Amino acid sequence: MAKHTLEIEYDYDFVLIGISSHEKDYRFCWALNNKLNIELVKQESLEIKGKKQTTPSYFSFFTFDDADQFTEYSVLANFSESKSLASTENTLFETAGKAKDGGQSENEFLIPEHKQMNYLFVIRGEMENEEVEELIKTLKEIDIVLTAVRIDVKSLKSKQNLIF
Hints:
Elements: E1 15-20, H1 25-36, E2 41-42, E3 46-48, E4 57-59, E5 61-66, E6 71-77, H2 83-86, H3 92-101, E7 119-124, H4 129-140, E8 147-151
Antiparallel strand pairs: 1-7, 1-8, 2-5, 3-4, 5-6, 6-7
């Protein structure tokens, strides 16, 4: 019997901006809402489980759909939440064993190539390069934003994590 495989081509047609900020996700999104006049709302955390992980990683996730402009804004935390830690008992020896294991979900990054970025700002919709540059400039004006840079999605090894 012949074996058939299905190959899926994903569309990475969106703008990705990496943002560094030491604020909590809700405070960061509140600042974005005020500066950009959008209404980001917290969604259920994005769950991702890699091949080598024994438990999934959870990433904070906020969205806003601007129907008038045909644009969808999403903010994802680049560092995973510790939901799996809450359900396990932590002793000195268990924690030490997990750190060596490497298969656990603690301290996982959504985009490991950009560990210095705390948040990923995803914009789906038509945007000109000038608009993106102006948006980055506006983001840098927010007091709690340390830096904001555009990230080329196609060059990322972990770009499949951005399909949601």
